Amino acid sequence: MNAFSRRGACPALSAPMQTGDGLLVRLNPVAGGLSPKSLIGLGESALRHGNGIVEVTARGSLQIRGLTADSARLLAAEVDALGIAVRTGVPVEIGPLAGIDPQEIADPRPLTERIRAAIEEAGLTPRLGPKVSVVVDGGGQLAMDALTADVRLRAVRVTAGIQWSVSVAGDARSATPLATVDADAARDITVAALRMIAEKGREAHTRDLTERQLASLAGWHSFAPPSVLRDISPSRGEIGSFGAGSSLSALEIGETNGASAISPLAGEMSGRTEGGAVERHRSPIGLFDLANGHALGIGLPFGSMQAQSLIELATQASGLGTTEIRLAPGRALLFLGLSASASSTLQAFAATLGFVTSPFDPRTRIAACPGMPACASGHIATRAIAETIAKESADLLDASLTLHISGCAKACAHPGPAALTLVGDEIGAGLVVDGTAKALPAGYRPGYDAARGVAGIAAAVRSERHAGETAAICLARLGATGVAELYRRN
């Protein structure tokens, strides 16, 4: 049975975190997906033991909210009874269509399992912080370009066949490239990078590595012997088998910049919705052609849905022939095994329940936390405000921007900057332009009236936008001061 313990036992269920609406647990199934029966069971558990809210995060994890210490234990037992094995250890993430997408360059699963095994063999899991992650992207229709990670591996076609491009600290656009190598070297570079992070403490990430360390990683494949993983000391991360003149020294692997102490073990989850996901190139919502059948992507509005609605959707999906349901980055579920006609039927049924069934739905442009009354930390009714804005100001929410609505300054739903952020506090609903919920708002209005302020901004964009101009460019031209004034006065 899952028991509450430190990270490394069963982190998602063993380390529930306190949030404003009780304890939260997060889980990712080892198998990559769930049967409809299992998802129904999880929904029923959420109704029995939580507040009935189920979420799919920006990185594609499933969360159950509103638990108590006792009910979290009961939930863990029921997850076991359902036969759902959940991932533990350092997250090594793959795309939701991995292994079944005819358009992917390479199946990332074999390399992913080798990396996970190497991490465990090296004893790195308890030495790394819970936000350290690796992405292994085989390409295809739902590539992982939008997810940030400490180490990124992306399949590429070269003259000799398939190799892996390795980069660190960012998403596909911002990460620093290191090398393009074969699978063995990609695994070794990944583990070496994680060792370097571990030497700096549990708060560290690859962004904290020195230029010298990055250069060492970039040249790793040129000289690392086959036994490299055995030659690295588990306690100091030092290399003991390189000859004189090697470009990689023990100091470079073990550099700490004064941060050699390993911090105490901590829980897996911060209690915040996962950050690190920016807008992907293709939405996970819609119909995807697979080598055998189709996958239908259905989104949760603002990443959240009542468990009862999820149960009804999974029940309908089961009756239509769904064989597996996968969690997808971008707050969506992928239903596999459906015919084209069954997909249309399920899509229509999902729309009646309030799910997001079109990638152009304006709700996909809004990140909103539970807010009040669901969360005790929330000062504004985030979801109600979001729904109103999606209906009344949809033309503002084009693909160029994200609107973040945060019940408080913790920024759980969207830790990064957004074009427009509404944040609740004791004064009301503040507006932050091109920043995060932690920034000082440029203007305020009452929380119950926040949607009307955004409607004023939308009206100005509607009248001032030049031909072919995106909403984000128009807002930039209007300026932060002008946008804040539009929010305040309307």
What does this structure look like?
It is built from 15 helices and 20 strands. With 490 residues, it is an alpha+beta fold. The protein folds into three domains: 11-88 and 283-359, Sulfite Reductase Hemoprotein,Domain 2 (Sulfite Reductase Hemoprotein, domain 2); 92-254, Sulfite Reductase Hemoprotein, domain 1 (2-Layer Sandwich); 363-489, 2-Layer Sandwich (Sulfite Reductase Hemoprotein, domain 1). The strands form four sheets. It has a five-stranded antiparallel beta sheet. The relative contact order is 0.11. Mean pLDDT is 85; it is low at 1-11 and 223-280.
Summary keywords:
490 residues; alpha+beta; Sulfite Reductase Hemoprotein, domain 2; Sulfite Reductase Hemoprotein, domain 1; 3 domains; 5-stranded antiparallel sheet; 15 helices; 21% strand
CATH architecture of the largest domain: 2-Layer Sandwich
Provide the CATH top-level class of the largest domain.
Alpha Beta
Contiguous runs where pLDDT drops below 50 for at least 5 residues = 1-11, 223-280
How many distinct beta strands? 20
Structural class of the secondary structure composition? alpha+beta
Give the fraction of residues assigned to helices: 25-40%
Q: Largest sheet, described in full? A: 5 strands, antiparallel
Explain briefly what this protein structure is.
The protein is an alpha+beta fold and 490 residues long. The protein has helices spanning 11-14, 36-49, 69-81, 109-121, 183-199, 211-218, 220-223, 228-231, 250-254, 307-319, 340-352, 382-392, 450-464, 471-478, 480-489; strands spanning 17-19, 22-27, 33-34, 53-56, 62-67, 92-93, 134-137, 149-158, 161-170, 176-181, 286-290, 293-299, 304-306, 324-328, 332-338, 366-368, 403-406, 418-424, 429-435, 443-445.
